[in-house]
UniProtKB/TrEMBL annotation:
Subunit: Associates with the 50S ribosomal subunit.
Pfam families assigned to the protein according to its UniProt record, in alphabetical order: KH_dom-like (PF14714), MMR_HSR1 (PF01926)
Binding-site positions, GTP 1: 30-37, 77-81, 139-142
All copies of domain EngA-type G, residue ranges: 24-187, 199-372
GO BP, one annotated term: ribosome biogenesis
Protein keywords: GTP-binding, Nucleotide-binding, Repeat, Ribosome biogenesis
Biological role: GTPase that plays an essential role in the late steps of ribosome biogenesis.
Organism: Nesterenkonia sedimenti
Protein name per UniProt: GTPase Der
Encoding gene per record: der
UniProt entry tagged with the keyword Nucleotide-binding: yes
Amino acid sequence: DEDAALLADEYDEDGAEPYVPAPPVLAIVGRPNVGKSTLVNRIIRSREAVVEDVPGVTRDRVTYPAEWNGRDFTLVDTGGWEADAKGIHKRVADQAELAVDEADVVVFVLDGLVGATAVDEAVVKMLRRKKKPVLLAANKIDSTAQMTEVYPLWNLGLGEPYPVSALHGTGTGDLLDAAMKHLPETAQYGGMVPVGGPRRVALVGRPNVGKSSLLNKLAGEERVVVDNVAGTTRDPVDELVTLAGEEWRFVDTAGIRRRQHMASGSEYYAMLRTQRALDKAEVAVVLLAVDEPISEQDVRIIQMSLDAGRALVLAYNKWDLLDDERRYYLEREIDRDLAHVAWAPRVNVSARTGWHKDKLGPALSTSLENWEQRIPTGRLNAFLGELVAAHPHPVRGGKQPRILFGTQPSTRPPKFVLFTTGFLDPGYRRFITRRLRETFDFTGTPIEVQMRVRE
Ligand code: GDP
Ligand code: GDP
């Protein structure tokens, strides 16, 4: 089948792959003040991580690229909680749990001189449930005379306790050697990560909306795509395009251009190409054509970009063809079919005349910036506190679910986790999501709000 052959050919092209598997993740967990940050500093051998003498100072989860004996990994320092005596047991465990979920190996740090406290025990309980490799680091063992302090820690059931002094660096080598034995080659939960370079854009849309034309206009040259050239010239897989002084990598442009040579535009392969471009990109420009009604296929492609978790820009092409009547209907179609992505920047363009093509770059930047936005834990909880005080969850069957604490464990796109005492109504969840968008600027990015119910 000709489509399949062309597609296979595109997949074979190599050398331009902008993604590599993410390095494995090692998470450091433990209650405040046991020396996690000091240990992190020791491992990354720099002073980047802030060490506070005050216990419980708000500190978000921080990740660092790290290396040990020639092996790269991502080090995650968990510290984001607030000094709130009442909820601190829960919060320490909650934060640790999020980090553990995404980790390949966990280093559980406690104060070797203090021994296992009730908070430590709570974390251990959670760690057992997760069934991930855990190494037990007994910190603050600054001298050999103190080594005997660690023996009772065998009772925790986490295997051999590693005596370390993060302060002096003793024992950390043995700890890391042991951790490396459990660390897989690549992250099990991390997927692919970009290797740098220009930001990656997927220009997608149903056939005939003007993707190829827009690409030509943006690339600053009219390309004549002629059938007999196709066999002899190798189309680039990706193309570098400068918009408003910034370089962008438009991914899979061969897929955009090649469609023109295909005998029949099989929808299946078109969708496969769309999916592939989205997989490779950070931001999607979904192109729509204003001279025809918004179609199911348009909506499906937007949904694919949401499912892929990409930043989004909606571009309405063929604006030169728009008359007043069509414009009236277009606005209604947008209200009806695209209300769920009303947060996406909208750019009206004409690939034919080049009108407004300079609006695309700024829209891409806005979406990406918000896609990477991280709301500090303190700010998020201040926001949640005010919101819940002003609009408490309705009472259901004599019960009123409460939000205990919220955190944003990840970006690209932003993901929030709310710890609650019961299930929240879908309406209330939507309300929170809407207020998050109103309070913090999430123009151009999908956001996810998850719940974790605590009994
Ligand atoms: P975190 O809250 O778990 O990140 O703990 P920090 O790294 O901020 O350390 C808390 C306190 O313990 C700081 O005053 C550190 O200087 C101290 N500390 C950390 N590691 C050691 C160690 O190995 N020995 C001693 N004696 N003190 C340490
Ligand atoms: P693709 O299938 O999405 O790559 O779409 P093409 O770029 O091949 O364009 C499909 C058709 O729409 C071609 O005939 C283009 O000349 C035409 N077209 C593309 N953009 C515009 C535009 O802005 N205005 C008008 N009037 N026609 C356009």
